[in-house]
Specification:
alpha/beta; 7-stranded parallel beta sheet
């Protein structure tokens, strides 16, 4: 059921991880589309950045999402109608299994308990294509699930918890969005963990050769941040529960990405290849969007060529390149 009418009654929205890449883009788009809503951002700034919220007009709160007492505090202080849960450890190279699962998985359970029992709130949360590992592409939500690292495992456990809670509380909306390779404005603070689109663009704009793992034919489903934000808002408005892929739906190689960047930047760099140092690595990701298109009405509008061009223009305006 569309929620636009209800938003006129000062609906309260919580965005965890709201100073991060995806959370901040979502916060700013929501305040633009729904000016009557009260939007509150939660972030501890371990991986977020205040610069992402310069134009955000809502309230900011900080706290530890792994602290159950903090959720009790929020439960008493607020009455959120909807929660967008973006907060997580997103560094896929971290191998500390306890820390990863405490932040990504256990904290999610605390959020669900508070959201359902204290607020009766709808929940839309960030899952990840990392749950698929090197399963055959295109990846389907109810198909092969075999994460290659503890990050992917922590997200898979979030999905399992969500499925369990949906059975216990079928009247509550719980929607998981499995993001594929997201890129776009607001990710620069992530440094070496920013998307390959960002990293290659910055290096090439500064006169450095692009470097790729041998031989650059690994493929990713690159999805622009504007499509990801739209997927969240569609889930918000449709009110549909379940787990959905959020990608562009077409895998592209890193070699193709460099070709596009050369064209947009007006450069002509040759690629320097080197050995992949990681034991776990996804070689080919591509989202099957059948469920997302059918139930959410999600139809991505930003192919890699358009997304990269829009992103590069933004980088130039911001003085990044």
């Amino acid at each position: 059921m569309p929620l636009r009418g209800k938003l006129k009654n000062a609906m309260q929205i919580l965005i965890t991880g709201g100073a991060g890449f995806i959370g901040s883009n979502l916060a700013k788009e929501l305040q633009k589309r729904y000016p009557e809503a009260e939007i509150i951002v939660l972030d501890n700034f371990e991986s977020g950045n205040f610069e992402n919220l310069i134009n955000f007009k809502g309230e900011l709160i900080t706290g530890d999402i792994t602290d159950k007492g903090f959720w009790d505090y929020l439960g008493n202080l607020y009455r959120f109608d909807i929660v967008f849960h973006q907060a997580a450890i997103t560094d896929t190279t971290i191998t500390d299994q306890r820390k990863m699962t405490e932040v990504n998985t256990l904290a999610f359970k605390y959020l669900l308990e508070t959201s359902i029992k204290r607020w009766n709130a709808r929940i839309i949360y960030a899952s990840s294509a990392a749950v698929y590992g090197n399963c055959p592409a295109p990846m389907k939500e109810d198909g092969c699930l075999k994460p290659e690292n503890v990050y992917g495992f922590s997200k898979l456990m979030m999905d399992r918890i969500a499925e369990k809670y949906l059975k216990r509380f079928p009247e509550i909306q719980i929607t998981g969005l499995r993001y594929f390779n997201v890129y776009g404005p607001g990710e620069g603070h992530k440094g070496k963990f920013a998307s390959m689109v960002y990293q290659l663009a910055v290096k090439m704009a500064r006169g450095q050769k692009p470097r790729l793992f041998k031989w650059g034919e690994q493929k990713r489903d690159f999805v622009y941040i504007k499509d990801v934000v739209e997927a969240n808002i569609l889930a918000f408005e449709k009110g549909v529960s379940g787990i959905f892929n959020v990608g562009y739906g077409k895998a592209r190689s890193f070699n193709e990405l460099v070709e596009i960047l050369n064209r947009v930047l007006g450069t002509d760099y040759e690629i320097e290849y080197f050995d992949n140092p990681y034991k776990f690595y996804q070689n080919f990701t591509e989202a099957d969007l059948t469920r997302s298109k059918t139930l959410l009405g999600y139809n991505p509008k930003w192919p890699l060529e358009r997304g990269v061009e829009d992103y590069i223009n933004w980088m130039k305006e911001e003085g990044i390149i």
